[in-house]
Amino acid sequence: MKRRNWTLRIGGCVAAVMVALILLGTVWTPYDPNALAGAEKSMAPCLAHLFGTDNFGRDLFSRVLEGGRTSLLIAFCTVAIGGVCGTVIGSLTGYFGGLVDEVLMRFNDSVSAFPNILLALVCVSIFGTGKYKIILVLGVLFIPSFARIVRGEFARERSRDYVENARIMGAGPFRVMFAHILPNVKTVLLSSVAIGFNNAVLAEAGMSFLSMGVQPPDASLGRMLAEAQGSLFTMPWYALSTGCFMVLLILGFSLLGQGLQEQEREL
Amino acid sequence: MAETLLEVRHLNAFYRNRGRRQQILHDVSFTIHEGEVLGLVGESGCGKTTLSRAILGINREIDGEILHHGGQPRMVFQDPASSLNPAWTVGRLLEEPLRNAGVPKQERLARAIEMLDLVGLDSASYERRPGGLSGGQRQRVGIAAAIIGQPKLVIADEPVSALDVTIQAQILDLFMRLRKELGLSYLFISHDMDVIWQISDTVMVMENGRIVETGPRDDVFRDPQHPYTKKLLDAAL
Q1: CB-based contact (8 Å) between B149 and chain A?
Q2: d(C-alpha A138, C-alpha A199), whole Å
Q3: A165-188 pLDDT per residue, tens
Q4: Which of A165, A167, A186 has the CB atom closest to B77's CB atom?
Q5: Which residues pair with B75 in a beta bridge?
Q6: Where are the domains of chain B?
Q7: In chain A, which residue's Cα lies nearest the Cα of B148?
Q8: Would strands B62-68 and B202-207 be described as parallel, antiparallel, or unpaired?
Q9: pLDDT on residue A2
Q10: Is domain B1-73+152-237 in CATH 3.40.50.300, yes or no?
Q11: B84 at A interface, C-beta within 8 A
């Protein structure tokens, strides 16, 4: 009997709904997220404004979608850079081993010894803020964690019979690595992508909250939380709607990652 | 005399374990001729697998000579559950050696279907993954993948010892039929004297990395010279 993996299913649904909402936000929002409306300042949630409005009369639902889009874009690009580079480095070092492996992994350890967010803040204060710089900085900082996971998988897989068989059948080292071994570490890789995605959303939000991240006029969930902080008691819906949106986005992807890990264990 | 396919001369093989070099094979010499089945028998851990790996060129910690006169041999593994990539379909597995040799897709597909038929599998298996097949079917895929590149020599390392007795007989029959139909030679490795008796022309007995006795099957079984061979035969009866 196959046990149903509810973590995976619920996580997948939540993540899909959140991503769908954000994608919808790129083509349609109820109001222009940046339109000021003096008559509709600081309105509580109602039918016309689902999440209410801020102190400039901007529709919060539209702004949350807009901010979610920035967060999603940054997280996606960060994970793409970190995941691709990390996979390439991890598979090379895990498969070949030897001196290059030792040197790269010690370098990896020393980078991982610092908290990512600290390194990111240092980099940002050197290179400056802005959407694309954040992507680049976070992307590079995410490489070590992916490289370590992939390296471990490759080091384990390389001694298995099917790898030896692939070599006997005439596959070169790159074909063995990326066509034969990679599909077998896919589940592990996917769950670390989901977890990495979460970390990227959080890192971006944290940096933007400290106004070291995305700069106006780009909306971002982290910036909105920082703005909401000032009116926590007069307009609680501002912080609540933004916060809940972020929580759901992260919850969806972390359940997805956890579900994938469970799936991997069952195999 | 038939053409010589493989010559192994004074082969010593080593295994490196945390920097310590340990000798596994000691001065191993033998030849395999075209169409011959050489049965290699010995207890597990005596160096049979090290020998097959040295012949295939996977273990390079060797000295001595290994001469291939009939091209690169192919290999059938003991456990097809671990030697066939679980993430690949049967069709892709079968076509892989041809793909690496640059054979175009249409021809690869035709050959893969032909091979499935030859080893007694349904052509619908092409789309399936090894995990969805039975142990016997999986070993048939393993055999098909080994012979699709038309090697002259196939090395079979304990190819039936992971299987049930009835399936064992079927797979042995398949080996014998393929030999007849394709004129293959085997280096057939087993710890099981019954299996060796059924399939071999020549028998080679290995103990602790040394060849202790070689000869035509009937001679070795009827009149064993070395005490280790006698011991193996006694244990099998």
Answers
A1: yes
A2: 10
A3: 999 888 999 999 999 999 999 888
A4: A165
A5: B155
A6: 1-73+152-237, 84-150
A7: A169
A8: unpaired
A9: 59
A10: yes
A11: yes
Q: Does B74 touch chain A (CB under 8 A)?
A: yes
Q: Which residue has the tokens 């004129």?
A: B183
Q: Rounded to an integer, what is the distance from CA A57 to the centroid of its chain?
A: 31
Classify domain A59-266 at the CATH topology level.
Answer: MetI-like fold (1.10.3720)
* Phi, psi (deg, nearest 5) at residue B46: -90, -5
ipTM attached to this prediction: 0.85
Q: With an 8 Å Cβ cutoff, is B79 touching chain A?
A: yes
Nearest CA-CA distance, residue B180 and chain A, Å: 24
User: Chain B closest CA to A183's CA: distance in Å?
Assistant: 6
Where are the alpha helices (H) located in A52-185, listed in sequence order? 60-96, 98-112, 116-127, 131-157, 161-168, 173-175
Q: Which residue has the tokens 């399939």?
A: B199
Q: Residue A180 corresponds to which tokens in the numbers above? A: 């034969």
- DSSP output for B195-210: HHHHH-SEEEEEETTE
Mark yes or no for CB contact A169/B58 under 8 Å.
no
| Contact residues, chain A, for B145 at CB < 8 Å | 165, 169
- Calculate mean pLDDT across residues A30-58: 79
pLDDT at position B60 is: 77
Ranges of chain B whose pLDDT falls below 70: 1, 237
